[in-house]
Specification:
Keywords: Coiled coil, Hydrolase. Residues 119-206 form a coiled coil. Its EC number is 3.1.11.-. This is Chromosome segregation ATPase. The chain is an all-alpha fold and 298 residues long. 90% of the residues lie in helices and 0% in strands. It folds into 2 domains: 3-124, no CATH class; 203-294. The chain contains 9 helices and no strands. The radius of gyration is 48 Å and the shape is flat.
Amino acid sequence: MTDALAALKAALAAALAEARAVPPGDDLAAFRFVSGLDEALHDLPALLEALPALARGGDLGRDLVAHFEETTAELARMRADLAADRRRLAELRPVADAMKATADEHAAVRAELAELHRLDALRADLDSLRAQRDAFEARLPELNAARDAEDGLDASAAALLRLTGAQLERLNGQVKEAVEQAAGAEAELTAARRRLAEERAAAESRTAELAAAADGFTALKADADRLMPALALYRDADRALLDGLARGSLVGASGLQRARDALDLVERTLEDLDAALASALEIHDHAHAEARRVLPLT
């Protein structure tokens, strides 16, 4: 085997290994490999065309010559198919670029629409947010005064705590006791602030729960106001139907009596339900009024 043939065999083995490494289903990688292989084998048709003459000259037999000729023809067909695929790819590339640009524009438009929807939702809440801001600004002087008083107390307590042990010894017993009481008051103030924050958070939570319960009870009352008249109309219609059937003697007396008893039971149930709802409304109104007296419900 000559050096050229040995190099060709090694190159073909490397190309085969690279072909097997192409991921399955990766059309783009497969197309790139086939295109590169076609360029690398540009002179192969001429080599294959020379093989039949060499085979005949070497007296290798008609079968081998025919095999070389079929291989050459198959390679020519494959090169023609590859050339056609390249032309189609060149024709489709502008379309693919246009589709990618359209997809990018679509994504940008969707992002812009999402931002517009978000801003529109904020606009719907703008009046409520402004009202809350105005309410806090109205209370700002009061809150600032409380903060200033608290800061002043902090400063005074801190100044007292900075006194050294020697200074405390020079003070008389009464002043020393007052300083020690101030230090204790600072610790109590810190604990009181913590408890106040916890109670405030608990009160806000209960206020929110009470407001939610009030909304639910209001919805329940609205449903009752809507349904009770309709139920009463159904009851009256059924009773009128029974009276008409009784006058016409179309149904047995025992059946009519059972229907009347059932309607009486429905009527008593509606009356009991109406009375219970009225009692619950009275209790709710009283409890809500009491809650509004001590909690900042709106």
